[in-house]
Amino acid sequence: MTQLRVPEAAAGERLDRFLAGLPEIGSRAVAERLLSGGAVLVDGRARAKSHKLGGGEQLEFEPPAAPASTLTPEAMDLAVPYEDEHLLVVDKPAGLVVHPAPGHAAGTLVHGLLAHDVEGGEEADRPGIVHRLDRDTSGLLVVARSPEAHRRLQALVHSRALTREYLALVVGRPRSRRGTVDAPIGRDRRDPMRHSLDTDTPREAITHFEVQDLLRRHSLLLVTLETGRTHQIRVHLAAIDLPVAGDTVYGRPGELGLQRQFLHAAHLAFVHPFTGEPVDVRSPLPADLEAALAAARS
User: Fold this and answer.
1) Does the active-site annotation cover 134?
2) Cys-Cys with 210: which of 11, 112, 178, 242 at CB 3.0–4.6 Å?
């Protein structure tokens, strides 16, 4: 169930039009279908699609899942640095959405992974997916090849035994060489498209960082996640005045010529849930991030 606060700026807008603009809904037709089925509550009550919002209301709804029938394999040149009969690690390029969502019914990582026998999980539109990366974040993801592998990998995530390290170039310098941001985040109270610390739906979020390189105007950080909330790294770093370079939502758009946020999932490590052997995979910075880093050093 998704909960969000209607921003004051939406006062006077029809309920169906507001819903259609949310990324979880994506279209007027889907919004109307949810409303006709009474699946949307406004301050605890079902409302007509023409209901005029006043701003500040609490919305509750269950985002629609993409039907399983839409999941057909698509030819995709994917980098897979590790795989065995139970799981695989894929190196996701920037710009690729992980799983189907409103506005992205095809061309996702899941569609490309179907040729690799991925399976597992309770959601039909994201078979094998254990954790996610934002569309414009590149790097490593582990994916399950069976329901049992998915269950065991999820257990690693929940017990915080899956090491996920990211490289982030931020604008500014941290006050210390290493630190931790322990601050719950959720959907922003005023802007449902963003996540923030100012939320009615807080969830535990813990991010660790360590300085790798101090530059003239920027800092290269090694960031480690304990939890995996939506936009967690980007929100946490912005909250401590270290916005991610190139981030169009929380950071500095266009910084150093970047067309996306400088955030790369560079290292993934865990104990194999079937064999007990260590799995340790690293991914080099993509060319666009290497170029931005070189510009920051010049």
Assistant:
1) yes
2) 178
